[in-house]
Amino acid sequence: MIALPDIIISVVYILGIVALGLWAGIRQQRASKSGDASQYFLAGKSLRWPSIGLALFATNISTVHLVSLAQSGFDTGLLNGDFEWMAAFTLILLALFFAPFYIRSGVATLPDFLEKRYDRASRDWLTGISVVSAIIIHIAFSMLAGGIVLNTLFGFNMYVSVSIISVITAVYTIVGGLKAVVITESIQTVVLIIGAVIISVSAYHRMNGWHPMVQVLQTTHNLDKLSMMRPSGDGSGMPWYAVFLGYPVLGIWYWCADQTIVQRVLGARDQNHARVGPLFCGFIKILPVFIFVMPGLFAFALAHSGKLDLSAITRLDPSGHPVVNSKGIYTLMITQLLPTGLIGILVAALLSGLMSQVSGALNSISTMVSYDIYKRYRPQTSDVRLISIGKISAGIALIFSLCLLPLLNRYESIFNGLNEIIAHIAPPITCVFVVGVFWRKASAASARLTLWIGSCLGAMVFAINKLYPGTFLGRIPFMMMAFYLFCICLLMQVVFSYAYPGVSTGTRLYWNSLKEPLQSKGWKGIGNYKVLSLVLLLLMIILFYAFR
């Protein structure tokens, strides 16, 4: 339980974010034409690169990351930091190759883009998959992590407390639209980073520095926890080749082809802002390894040094041996390492992660349902009606997400559970986007069949792994499973493109060569997207080498 001052800080923060979100959204709507759907769903395409970059980071980094990355740091060390740093490479791809198409085509959603490149059937399938994935991945898992935090800190019922926070978030999201989401996410990103830095510094200080922590790891024979590039056969199931082969499949879907993330780019005021925003996010993505994963590693060392009491999250297994439930390690560090006042700031940071993730996902769901489903069957629908449909769909999605919490809570590791689901959803979507953008012969029939068969194949493999975990498929690490499924989808689309050749719906939305997207000069100086891409690429190579 935490002190009254910390509770007051948390409550004031929540009320402040709600007030800011409502003010921003209502102000935007009043300044624009009344009932303009573009203003509501895409902020009138007025977003600049700082807001885009911060909003991308905030939508990506939720309470799931604060809780689960600390858990992974405690359990496996820096290994899951690969997911954070590999994201920089896919953000470079988004900036260089995908964002120009999205802005040039003037689409409101990525399913809309897929129809322009292929056909309407592809659009419909992606809409369904995107709505489902937003409900499960972006909302339900974030709620689960937030519920664990609120239960540990306050003793509140996990499901009741997270329901209240989510409904509060839905209020300003549904009323204010994307403008409210982006402005509040920018504030929440700053608060989240400040909170994460505080806990990192506190853990570092309690451990008396880096070298004492390394000595503990050496004494306990856990020096491998400092490595992000594991050898073949590593017990984690994530050797170095699985990271470089499997992550791009997950990452391209998540950062370049997922509506919840890319909607911030679609709201950019022009192509330069759409490109520099993701690159700005790529630089920020360097931080999570140090402020999200590292605290969990320090917690491991502190526990083995007797400086962190794990009794609150330790239980006895059926054989009588103590087992640590590492899901609660982050909240345990908050209560044991921080004084009153700072705890309130950390709680605000955790709530920021939950609220920003939920708000971003609800906004993208409402956009897809309005544009890709409702307006398709009723093309003459007014903007006012379209906005109403979006608001209703956001509320329904929130209810479905809450119903999934008991099922998702069965995962021992939240982060691994999240990525395991993504690994079976992403391959066919990544395939049709990558092939469609880089190969002009990719036909509409090939995309349609690849999405249908690939998605069914992924669902079937996932079901087999859950029902019969001892089979050959069940022993394949999820990162490599994502790569194998992608290869199957790639082969299918190439074969189907030759078997069923045909042109897309009309607009040329593919690159003739890799040089074509780089012909745009961009801004001058350090703000040039080419310069920023090169700097980010070199920086990531250096970091991976340092923590190999």
UniProtKB/TrEMBL annotation:
Keywords in alphabetical order: Membrane, Transmembrane, Transmembrane helix
Superkingdom, natural source: Bacteria
Location, primary (coarse class): membrane
Membrane spanning stretches: 6-26, 47-65, 85-104, 125-150, 156-175, 187-205, 238-256, 276-302, 342-365, 386-409, 421-439, 451-468, 480-500, 529-547
GO molecular function, one term: D-glucose:sodium symporter activity
Subcellular location: Membrane
Cellular component terms (Gene Ontology): plasma membrane
InterPro entries in the cross-refs: Na/Glc_symporter_sf, Na/solute_symporter
Bilayer topology term: Multi-pass membrane protein
The keyword Cytoplasm appears for this protein: no
Recorded family membership: Belongs to the sodium:solute symporter (SSF) (TC 2.A.21) family.
PANTHER family attached to this UniProt entry: SODIUM_GLUCOSE COTRANSPORTER 4, SOLUTE CARRIER FAMILY 5
Protein's UniProt name: Sodium/glucose cotransporter 2
